[in-house]
Records
---
Amino acid sequence: MNKLSTDKERLEQAQILLRAQDVDKSYLSGPTRLDVLTGINLEVHRGEILVIVGASGVGKSTLLHILGALDHPTRGTVELNATDIFSLSDKKLARVRNRAMGFIFQFHHLLPEFTALENVAMPLLIDGRKPKEAEEVARGLLGEVGLDGCVDQKPGELSGGEQQRVAVARALAKSPLIILADEPSGNLDRANSEMLHDLIWRLSRSKNQTFVIVTHNEKLAAKADRLLRLSDGRLWPETL
Ligand SMILES: Nc1ncnc2c1ncn2[C@@H]1O[C@H](COP(=O)(O)OP(=O)(O)OP(=O)(O)O)[C@@H](O)[C@H]1O
Ligand SMILES: [Mg+2]
């Protein structure tokens, strides 16, 4: 057997984790209707880094919010592990969002009053895990993102890149099926961006963690297994 399958083979063999079918999204503002997404079809494979690029205002964040169950589509379906998530009750949908989805945004949204360790442990505590166990998981994750030495520091005492790595650790806390990231390095300088991009790539390879990332950053796009462009309400294959 081949010792290492190519990235393409790896992708072809991977299970489909998320599938969006005929997704439309329109916004109403007064009498005008803005059709942002018009027929999105997308399959995300387990363990892949899928990057979506596109001009400002084209609907990338809108799409990411729908894939992450933060917003409902106007039409169409999103299946996570073959479950049609928008057919679930609000309570079950909230559970899917909390358990299965991890989010990383351009601005980290860490809680300023809490230490790095507490920020990462928080989703686990909210989920009802014992404090000691939550702390242990959080400590391990902070180690994985290279922040062993910063566990007791508050966000304001960390650099932008460190804060964003805490946000990655927090997104990983509940072992989500998929991590959705909206311009994760949009607020970082080049060195910190590269560190974050390397971290995302490493997590995808070592944990088979699945990422859907919206970015304008070409270096991050270069790390994608697949690159798509959102334009005219639809997704199109894109090459670097
Ligand atoms: N809640 C809303 N109500 C009305 N219109 C909205 C709403 N959210 C977004 N829009 C509009 O939908 C379009 C797509 O917005 P979106 O934020 O998804 O774009 P984007 O591709 O993420 O842009 P950027 O690259 O600037 O972040 C924009 O024209 C925006 O004004
Ligand atoms: Mg956006």
---
Amino acid sequence: MNKAAEKKKIGVLGIIKRLVPVVCCAAPGFMAVDIMVSILHGISWGLQTTAQQVFFDRVTELSLGNTALDQVFLALGFLGCANVGCQALNGVSNFLPTVMNGKIRGKLSFGIHQKIARLSPVMFEDAARLDDINKAEQGKNNAIGFVNIILMILTFYLPYFLYMGGYLFVLKPILVVAILLVFIPTTLTQSLRTRIFANLEDQSAPMRRKCEYFESCITSREYFKETRLLGGFRYFKNLYLDTLDTMQKIKMRSNMKVNWFELSMRMLTVAGYCGILLLLFDALLKQEISVGAFAAVFSSIGSLYNLMEEVICRHIGSMSQNIGTLQNYLNFLELEEESGSVDKAPGWGDVVLQNVSFSYPGASTPAVKNVSLTLHKGETLAVVGENGSGKSTLIRLICGLYQPQSGSVWMNGVDARKLTAKARYQDISAVFQKYQRYQMTLRENITISSPDREWDERTLDEVCKVAGVEQDRVTFPDGYETMLSREFGGVDLSGGQWQRVAIARGFFKKHSMIVLDEPTAAIDPYEETRVYRQFAEISKEKSAIVVTHRLGSVKIADRIAVMKEGRVCQVGTHEELVHIEGEYQRLWESQERWYE
Ligand SMILES: Nc1ncnc2c1ncn2[C@@H]1O[C@H](COP(=O)(O)OP(=O)(O)OP(=O)(O)O)[C@@H](O)[C@H]1O
Ligand SMILES: [Mg+2]
């Protein structure tokens, strides 16, 4: 378990301490104005009660002949100003967050994307880490609401409650205690809610991810042809509905528990509220408070109670429902990042693997076991072996995508662990086994590997020629500007054509070393030979690693590394290996007749 997973549970105070700076720093100017308006707004609510008392007292005094009419008008003016001021501030404090939150959302999303870029690619092979990433998006949205509520409590509700507390204390100290007692049951309900919903989020996040995956198996373009043709539609639909059903049941159970508790606590609150009114009435009869004070408190106590309930039930309630997602967001922000600090590319030279072993997260056996191998500067190395023998994993280690758990990878004499991702990848290009099909134009599909590289049509023609992307007007009606996506109103390509585009993309990036993981699996053998010949021509001066199952193509390589069960069991040229009894000879003999 890594550091982030161990720290999964973060208390509410911890969440506040870490989230408030993150959100506030996203729009500091807006935040400062919002806080000021909110404080004034809170005080203006309290002032209304004082203004009411003054007004009612003046009216009472006027009826008894103890004051003049202009004093009543003065009090009325004060009451009017307090009301208008409160409404105006209310309008401003409602409007500000709509603009401010949009800005903050954009900044936090950007932060998430940057964080993902700094994570080690191996994290994406780990189901638990994928959950963290999935949960982070949700947590980010709730984080903004959470911080808004915290600030509103501190800058609006707190000044108002303090004002009212002071006001009531001066009138009759027991009133303050009575009001506090009213809110204890409500607070208890909320703490139960917090606990239950934090657990709920933990249980439902993996299920939500499964649901989304099953849904995509039925509806997404990538899967639906296969799932329908092979009859998997009903299977995925049932899995989707079962998971949805389980999720609903868990949610329902949690809600029932909270609602029953809340109902009984509300009964207690109503009893407390009635008690306060009795206390007030008693004080009035004993002439401990004036008629004006009684009337002001009587009319304000409703809104005081409503505001308190609003803060505890609505705001703290929604906050507590989201506590789980906030913890996940913070856990995500604290996921371990790649540790390398040397930003300067190591330059072109030998790549040396020393006793390298690597296991995927959660796997019981290593995918690569104790491999020592050198890719010499300018050499073309072919890697062959059966399915699952560790070829793709080995080349991900060579190009620094994964870091070995033991042993080390040296790039031109520099330990790859010390390098930043940017430095490691600077001189390397690759065409992976699972290459991407970007729903963009042909030009973008090629140039995306090196967006900063200057190019003209001739550059594109050259890489397309090597990769075998034929520029006919039927396949690419708009030339390089042809949109390669049916969804966006363009064309789709065959598997082999897509693969050639991926190869062109790999060649377009300026590189000293290129890694090709079965780049021609979807291309016919005749075309493959041509691609490899062209490739050998342009790679003469560069280092290259080619993974392939078709042994006819490995002859272009200077050396061949043969893999079996995660180990490199043979290294040599085709001529050497084919005459030695071993894995290569066995593979060659099984394919030989194809080439005869
Ligand atoms: N993401 C992953 N998580 C866990 N195990 C994995 C993962 N990817 C690969 N493996 C395992 O690691 C081993 C090596 O896989 P790898 O993809 O490197 O083999 P390969 O030689 O490239 O196979 P192929 O010829 O089919 O492409 C296999 O046993 C595989 O099951
Ligand atoms: Mg592979």
